[in-house]
Amino acid sequence: MLNYKRYLIWVVVSFVLLFGQFIFPLNVILLLLSIIFILFSVQKKSYLFLFPILALSFYHGDQSVSLYTFKFGPGSILYIVVGIMVLLTFLKSRSMKNISIYLFLIIMFYLSYSIIIGSALDFIHFSTEFFFITVSLMFLLVLSKVERVNYDFLFLSLGTAYFIAKITVFITGIGLDAVPYSRDTIQYFALFDPIENFLLLYSILAAFNSKIKFFKVVSSINFTLFCISSFQLGYVHGGTIIMILIVFLWVFILNFKKVILPMFVIISLGNIYSFSLDVEKGSVNYYKIEKFIGLITFISSSDFSIYDLPRSPQVRVIETANLLHQNPVFILFGKGFGGSISETKYKYGSYLNADDYSETEVKERRFFTLHTYNQLILKHGVFMIFVLCFIGWKARSAKNVTFIDTSLIFLILSYGYTIKPYILLAMFLSEIFVHSDKKISLSYKFKSKSG
Q1: What residue segments make up the domains of the chain, in order of their start?
Q2: pTM of the predicted model as reported, rounded to 2 decimal places
């Protein structure tokens, strides 16, 4: 049964974590409390340790002091905490779930594959990607031993807190970042983090899938808060728009009769909202709309050249064309850790900048971190997308359908940008192979000898 007071408590706690990270010395106190709480929750086999880990981010600006931004040696203190989490898990129980063994074997396969085909020659990218997937395995080990996650409670509570904090950052200016978008335009960032898209997509899907009326209301509130925060900033990211369209299309396909009226209302409100944004020439939103229209025109018109596209979508289309213009084996299975592409079919020209790729990638004309679905295809191939969709579909149930669907869309379109997708991948695999009512069983059994 839903405890409304518990929901409100965790909204407040998450909000304090998100906004308090910018206020000294409160942020230092919150950092210490977060670490203690995470380790205590893992010890008690509670999934609540996910709240601070999912809420905070590397991308929250120079003013932030948190699990992600506080450095311990060469890296973030987060990774020290994850190591202790794994140690506590093994002290509690020395047995390993089957899925952890299989994920380890898959990682070893891709490690060997990467070395054989030469992707490991770029040691920095190779080691970073290998490290991230190793962290994912560590999270999977912990998640396989804790209680099953209440996904609606976790993500809808986080969503409410996140979007309220985003609005508060903009109003107060505390933690607000401003960067040049063009010669005459400034773009503002408030709590920018890829997890925002996950929380938004989850809220939209939960409005249709949740069996609890309160969560349906919360989903609508979260979507409204997102609209308010976007109105304040004056734009919506192009990738976010594409994800929203995919989610609505998915809902429409699965629930045709149920969603006609709600979809009409949402689309109507969305149109009103979009026209209320700043579309004056030279604004950030004006450029975003221009890019989106250019991409649609390119797709629908054979007379529209790839070099007629606005710069940002042009980079992404050229990237996709170059990715698919390689050995079919690499398209099918990817290039593993450290995999990259070059300008084999189309040239970018001289206009690439930090919004597109890193300075080193632009200089060397080798690209390791791609956009949207291209990243997953580059590293693990189309075959991995098929595997994720297949196991996700097989394990869907009434309790996890929103989480499974949101995870698939998010992982395919946002894989590999930060550690967050790897954490969500661990949650996804844990649900499918350990906790789901329709979990996929693996017959291999392993148990370490106790000392």
Answers
A1: 4-279
A2: 0.88
